[in-house]
Amino acid sequence: MADRFTKSMARNIYYGGSLFFILLFIGLTWHTNEEMPKQDNRENLTESVIRGKNLWEVNNCIGCHTLLGEGAYFAPELGNVYLRYGKSKEAIKGFIKSRPINGIPGRRSMPQFGFDDQELEDIAEFLKYTSEIDTLGWPPNIQG
Amino acid sequence: MKYTSQAVAKPYFIAALALFAGQIIFGLIMGLQYVMGDFLFPEIPFNAARMVHTNLLIVWLLFGFMGSAYYLIPEECETELYSPKLALIMFWIFLVAGALTIVGYLAMPYATLAKVTGNEYFPTMGREFLEQPTITKIGIVIVILAFLFNIGMTLLRGRKTVITLVLMTGLIGLAVFFLFSFYLPDNLVKDKFYWWFVVHLWVEGVWELILGALLAFVLIKVTGVDREVIEKWLYVIVAMSLITGIIGTGHHFFWIGTPAYWQPLGSIFSALEPIPFFMMAVYAFNMVNQRKREHPNKAATLWAMGCAVMAFFGAGVWGFLHTLAPVNYFTHGTQITAAHGHMAFFGAYAMIVMTIISYAMPMLNGRKEANSRKSQVVEMWGFWLMVSGMVFITLFLTGAGVLQVWLQRFSDNPLPFMVVQDQIAVFYWLREVAAVVFTLGFVVYIVSFFVKGEEATINAS
Ligand code: HEM
Ligand code: HEM
Ligand SMILES: [Fe+2]
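# protoporphyrin IX containing FE complex -> structure
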């Protein structure tokens, strides 16, 4: 094989193969974007949800939690926490609001962020919106 | 050292190892927080430690890649670097910007950092690995562009080899895909979809070109095998990386609200992703077995072979373990992912940087080809301790992950996350023990740089 398979053949596979799959990937990216409205729950992307997403980001919730399975593995999955809490935004707000400033002795702790009522509402709205994204049946059960 | 301008690589390597030390310290902190939940709370909450850990990793690898390129490009191009001065200026800018960002993570709540850096005017913060303030991200782009300009100009006026071409393509790709970090749509599904254009297309795309090129360079040097042979392998390996890895991105599009066809597509292509890693391992051993010379730097050869093998296990084997959609359904976002992430990042990218450092540092320190035998023996002890530490970290996290999947996702009576974490705590303790061994290995490795003695030669061995 060493003789018949030359360096220029290897090079052509590299260039040709890469180009082909880059183009295919661009096509699939375009198509995925076309299909997204069917699953991504964009009809519920309200001003409140958008503010909630921003709060999610600037407080780095992803640094402890997973959201739809991506993030850190230190604290519970939150993509379905709205469902786990019996579709109660109040329960979610109550949990976030009641975190002790100095944590819970011996237990993994979540910071007290000091959100006001509007901010709590926005975060809860964001978690509700997230739970309504069609993730094709993931997670396997309510525990996330 | 054939060209004096290669010397700019040295500060880059030293900074890389210093930041690596910081990464390890914060790894140890998080490892403790996993089992002693209130450790350092609320001073250093877990998320802050995690940002420091993963961002230091990325930054030190970038330092490592840049240093490697500054060392390799003049030698391959057979000409001095276009501007060693620019390289030094960028070194300091990158180091200061990086240090300030890390201090920001630790000195204030993340929301305050977002505020003072004006995230509201151009929001990009708050996503895993991309936590840097927008101005830091812009700084990174400037540093990388200046770096690409510098080595690009060198390349243009010098000899062009397959290695430099592949390396350059990989580095340009690194810069291009990083641009997606500036795109932060309100739509969560879109946000997640394009986030992977940075993360996956880096480590399972363009970074593999960098890895392949650097490995090829060291193999040519330490084995003396004909360049033609090695370059042919390199082409095939990077071809397979891109052919499998680009569509392989689909293994992240199973459960984030993207179309169902990604399940078969992502499963099939990513299942082929181990092939280039397997080829890398085979070729590293082949080249060493067919070596045309004995190189006095035994440690560098060990690093090169170790890197190829660990990359194959971490990325190839541990990646394959959870990459098929029906398996990933249960393992997605568990300790299995953490196990794989650790061995893959360490085996492929941390180890290739240490391979180049091992090869280049003796010359950068004014030796002809290698350190003293004594220094190399110490370095190899560091190698084995770090590698065994990482293997056990991976195994214990895998154990934790299997149990987590079983208790929380698979059994008839699934338990809540926090209950499960308590039940598998013993694995986290064991991980921390393995992490201490790893840290010890790192210390031994650093000590090896200070072990003196007469340069090793072939006859003496
Ligand atoms: C001293 C040894 C180390 C310890 C105890 C440690 C511990 C940790 C912990 C606890 C996390 C967070 C996991 C979570 O999200 O819950 C983490 C994340 C991570 N660490 Fe380490 N680490 C160590 C060394 C390393 C090394 C040497 C590397 C690579 C060279 C590395 C790469 C990573 C990566 C890539 C992540 C993100 C993983 C993911 O998102 O799946 N770590 N580490
Ligand atoms: C050196 C190359 C590689 C590196 C550095 C790497 C690193 C990582 C990291 C850090 C993550 C976690 C991302 C997150 O935080 O969400 C991850 C996820 C993943 N990797 Fe890799 N990886 C590599 C190669 C591979 C390969 C070759 C495969 C497949 C054969 C693979 C399969 C996966 C899968 C399926 C996930 C998603 C896990 C989940 O669903 O939670 N990886 N990888
Ligand atoms: Fe991936």
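# post-check
Chain B touches chain A through 77 residues (CB under 8 Å).
Residues 144 and 175 of chain B are 7 Å apart (CA to CA).
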